[in-house]
Specification:
- The chain is of the alpha+beta class.
- It has two domains: 116 residues; 237 residues, Alpha-D-Glucose-1,6-Bisphosphate, Chain A, domain 4 (2-Layer Sandwich), CATH 3.30.530.
- It is 52% helix and 18% strand.
- The strands form two sheets. Strands 2, 3, 4, 5, 6, 7, 9, 10 and 11 form a nine-stranded mixed β-sheet that branches.
- Strand 5 and strand 6 form a beta hairpin.
- Helix 1 packs antiparallel against helix 2 and helix 8 packs parallel to helix 9.
């Protein structure tokens, strides 16, 4: 029931009450008029009415009714105001109740938040002693940041070096015209005898020279006519080409026991083995690559790169090659350089064929090891090879008075005689040294 409906109902009830009061007043008026007439002594007929009294009574009654209506209106306004006040109070109470419920809900939410924060604080206080301070974390991050920055700078520098290396190698290749025909794999090219100054390019050049020599080992021994592993052979020869001389020395023989220890010291002492300089044994070592740079007692400059390789059958291969063009070395026009190519192979003669790589049907009963050695030497100058006449003076043979068409034969005969004489002399000396050693031990 709405507020206005309740007010109308109350007004209707008050109106009914007013009507009842009016009827009650009329009922009381008759006895009152009779009493008044009796008091004033007027005798009237039964049907005669005291109009004056009745008029006054009616007038009084009308005034009372007017007064009652005003009171009722005031009362109605008061009741409406009270009803409105009660309605507003109900709204206020409802609003307060809603706000109270919301506040209670918010209190519960905040209580849970506070409880979780207190729980985290208790856990933090319990583990406070095991945690790292923010200052230490900041210092650690600063150190890591510095390390990362340094690594980044180093990587950028490395990338720059690689780009520069690639550019240099590109220029290095483009400077030489591409051949129009396929070259023989055994033909030496400028890449096989040159080293650049830049460390990375230089290391690549060393590896190229070493691998090229190792891959050519079988082909080189086959080219110079080495027999199968069951035979022994020794030869010395020279080749005169374009007024220059190349000396070729080859030897194949059985190995004695204990050659493994000899192989370990071969690369560092290669110059002593080749009779270039018995006192030189400290090369530049780059891991497995050895670079011998020295000047012999004869005034010849040696720039020799050497390396060894372990084979799958337990044998070893040692290769060496002189570097003719080294950017780190400046030679005068009068300097003499000895160019050396060397192959040293040790293998079981019952397993590998020296010519074709075939497996022998008959194996050696003791697994005898064979050693094959090939040495090529040539003397040159920065502007070209040493002439035949200069080689003759080196061997003690004067070719100035010999006709040009006979110089090679005269020089060859003189070199062979001198070499075999030196070989016999050296063999005799070694025999005497060995006999003296046995006598001393006895």
């Amino acid at each position: 029931m709405s507020f206005l409906a309740s007010c109308d109902a109350r007004i209707l009830a008050i109106t009914n009450i007013a009507r009842q009061l009016r009827s009650t007043l009329v009922e009381v008026t008759g006895p009152l008029e009779a009493w008044c007439a009796k008091k004033i002594g007027h005798k009237q007929a039964p049907n005669q009415t005291c109009y004056g009294l009745k008029l006054s009574c009616v007038t009084a009654s009308s005034m009372d009714n007017a007064i009652d209506m005003k009171r009722l209106e005031r009362r109605n306004r008061v009741l409406k105001q009270r009803e409105y006040d009660r309605h507003m109070k109900r709204l206020y109470r409802q609003k307060e109740k809603t706000e109270r419920v919301d506040l209670i809900y918010e209190i519960d939410e905040l209580s849970r938040v506070v409880e979780s924060m207190l729980e985290r604080r208790r856990v933090w206080e319990a583990t406070k002693g095991t945690r790292v301070a923010w200052k230490d974390i900041c210092m650690g991050l600063r150190e890591e940041s510095g390390l990362s920055s340094a690594q980044h700078a180093a990587l950028k520098e490395q990338v720059h070096q690689y780009k520069a290396l690639a550019q240099r190698m590109k220029i290095w290749v483009l400077l030489n015209a591409m051949p129009r025909v396929a070259l023989d794999g055994r033909v030496s090219t400028w890449r096989d005898v040159s080293l650049m100054a830049h460390p990375t390019s230089r290391q690549l050049g060393k590896e190229w020279i070493a691998k090229q020599l190792i891959h050519q080992t079988k082909a080189v021994f086959h080219t110079y006519g080495f027999p199968t592993k069951t035979e022994n052979v020794f030869f010395f020869d020279l080749v005169v080409e374009n007024e220059s001389v190349e000396y070729i020395w080859g030897h194949q023989y059985d190995l004695r026991d204990g050659w493994e220890a000899f192989m370990t010291s071969l690369c560092p002492n290669l110059c002593a083995l080749l009779m270039l300089d018995l006192t030189h044994s400290v090369p530049l070592n780059d891991g497995s690559l050895y670079l011998h740079q020295m000047t012999t007692v004869a005034g010849e400059f040696i720039n020799l790169i050497a390396t060894s390789f372990q084979k799958h059958d337990g044998g070893s291969i040692l290769v060496a090659q002189s570097v003719a063009d080294d950017e780190t070395i400046q030679l005068t026009n009068g300097s003499v350089v000895r160019h050396v190519s060397f192959w040293y192979d040790e293998a079981l003669k019952s397993t590998i064929n020296a010519i074709r790589g075939d497996i022998y049907a008959q194996s050696h009963p003791h697994g005898q090891w064979k050693r094959r050695t090939l040495l090529r030497q040539r003397r040159l100058r920065p502007l070209g090879w040493v002439s035949l006449q200069e080689e003759g003076r080196y061997w003690g043979c004067d070719l100035t008075q010999v006709p040009p068409d006979l110089r090679e034969s005269v020089f060859r005969r003189h070199v062979f005689q001198t070499y075999y004489m030196l070989d016999r002399t050296s063999f005799s000396r070694f025999q005497r040294i060995e006999q003296n050693a046995k006598t001393t031990q006895a």
